[in-house]
Design brief:
By secondary structure, this protein is α/β, with parallel strands linked by helices. 47% of the residues lie in helices and 12% in strands. It has helices at 3-8, 35-39, 60-68, 87-98, 114-123, 138-145, 159-165, 175-186, 189-206, 209-228; strands spanning 47-51, 76-80, 106-110, 126-129, 150-153, 168-171. It is globular and about 65 Å long. The protein starts with a helix and ends with a helix. The relative contact order is 0.16.
């Protein structure tokens, strides 16, 4: 699903040609759901969204202290997701937030899907996923399709695409670096909007099913042409 994933697969000794095709994204209609109204988030407060499985590799141990260091800035942190395989870790994260000064700036939604998930992605001002490892990151592509700029770690394998498209910000997996990146992104609404538009354009060109279908057609045509020669 990414060039870096293909490179990583070399350790298995495969001798076939790599075919790199991203995962496809199609968001259901949001049906005009007012996420801010539902969760009581003021309309003038920037919304910073984490939407993923709540598990150790997703970098919440970096994100929570980074946000705690930025409480002088106005924002609402929305933590969306669950982990049915490890409810104990999910509960640890909930308790960590409840004990924190971040608690009154945090909205925890639990698992969310369908039209409500689309509405949440569209309402967010920034999408954040500082993962320690991601082959692709489908939630990132979904956020981009919703025209929301992303803040991701350099261990997400599509990070170079995000940088090249100026569709968001990329940071190392360090609290200090993540804090600085969040501060930069939160401080410039015009830049958020610009990178959000870039994100949607890139997602439509590379992560839509129409774009992926064209890649598959071209790939099969190339295989057939080599076979014929």
């Amino acid at each position: 699903t990414s060039d870096r994933e293909a490179k990583t697969s070399e350790r298995f000794g495969a001798i076939t040609n790599d075919l790199v095709i991203p995962l496809g994204v199609k968001l259901p209609l949001s049906q005009s759901i007012s996420i801010r109204e539902k969760y009581g988030i003021p309309g003038d407060r920037p919304m910073l969204l984490f939407l993923s499985r709540i598990e150790p590799k997703k970098g919440l141990d970096l994100l929570i202290p980074a946000l705690e260091a930025l409480l002088e800035h106005e924002f609402q942190f929305v933590l969306a997701g669950s982990n049915p395989q490890d409810p104990e870790y999910e509960q640890q994260i909930r308790e960590r937030v409840q004990r924190s000064r971040l608690n009154d700036r945090t909205t925890i939604t639990g698992f969310i899907t369908g039209a409500e998930k689309t509405a949440l992605l569209e309402a967010a001002d920034l999408f954040v996923l500082p993962s320690y490892y991601e082959n692709f990151g489908i939630a990132i592509a979904e956020a981009m399709m919703a025209e929301t700029p992303v803040i991701i770690s350099d261990q997400v394998h599509i990070c170079h695409e995000i940088e090249a498209a100026e569709a968001g910000w990329v940071t190392p997996c360090e609290v200090g670096a993540l804090t600085a990146t969040l501060k930069t992104a939160l401080s410039d609404r015009a830049e958020q909007l610009r990178r959000g538009k870039n994100a949607k354009t890139h997602a439509e060109q590379h992560y839509s099913w129409d774009a992926i279908a064209q890649q598959m057609i071209q790939t099969y045509a190339q295989i057939l042409s080599r076979k014929g020669s």
